Request: fold
Amino acid sequence: MIYLEQLFAAVDDYFIEKLVENDPVFDQILANNQKHQLPPHDVSPSQGKFLYLLAKIKGAKRILEIGTLGGYSTLWFAKALDNDGQVISLEYDKKHAEVAQENLDFAGVSNRTTIIVGTASDSLKKMVHTQTAPFDLIFIDADKENNSVYLQYALQLSTPGTIIIGDNVVRDGAILDSSSSDGRVLGVRSFVDDLATSKTLTSTAIETVGVKGYDGFTISIVE
Reply:
């Protein structure tokens, strides 16, 4: 198993070197996150590039990100947008939000990124109440216990054709454990059940291996 993990990481490194442009701004963001002792939960460079390409393929103008951390994935989304595009990112932790804002200012994308600090469910509820314009792409990457709550709000902030991505859904295979007492696993299982029974979503899941270990994501489209 150790050999396979090393192999997966080496292959991931190969594709990153070949296919992901070497942008020192991303390296600086990760270094700044580490300096401020943020947890290393950012997407990998390959995954960030994948999110960028999805936004490009969609032709997204408005992106909602639930869970900012240090703004690494936020920057990937921002790079996919024209100057009139907008990424709205929700972050519970004030310190994380401050570091992320510092990073996005450094990257020069603060004109098309907005970080909203507070409990994501409260922020989403307010957005629904104020009839915020729908989003073209929604990335759910926050506390997994509330994934189902976030999905319900995401659907209210969507329009036919909106892409909804749920990150970290495999969790080293723990998703299979129906008897788990881990709230994160239970939250993801509930989220997947919601996707499976939704009458307005068409969904699939992709497993991933590499420098971030064994995990995966769901991808859905609003019909």
In short: The radius of gyration is 17 Å.
